[in-house]
Amino acid sequence: METFQTRAEQKTDTELVDIYLHSQDYQENFMKVVEEEISKRKIPLDALKQIRSESEESSDKKFELGEQGNPLWIALSFVAALLGGLIGLIAGYIYAYSKRKNSQGKEIYAYNEQTVNGK
Q: How far is the CA of 117 from the CAs of 58, 65, 87, 97, 111, in angstroms?
């Protein structure tokens, strides 16, 4: 059976750096092994930490702005709600109250203010 250590040792330096910079896509235990392997290969870990931190900050700022809702679906949901349709009410609730978690685990509304308030 292949272990995390074996898998990390088989990766190229470029692959290890890519894995390290996209750590949110991997298991925590694997990331510990990847960090050890990066250190073993004398790849500058401090520089990678700085790059990863800046990338996460940028991603979080973009994430906090929220996603723009699809105008067609919003219009159809509005019409359905006016006609007494439960689907329209459910869609409105989803657009108004859907949340996602950022990289620090903080919950943020999924859709931007323009989508929710119709401005």
A: 25, 14, 19, 12, 10
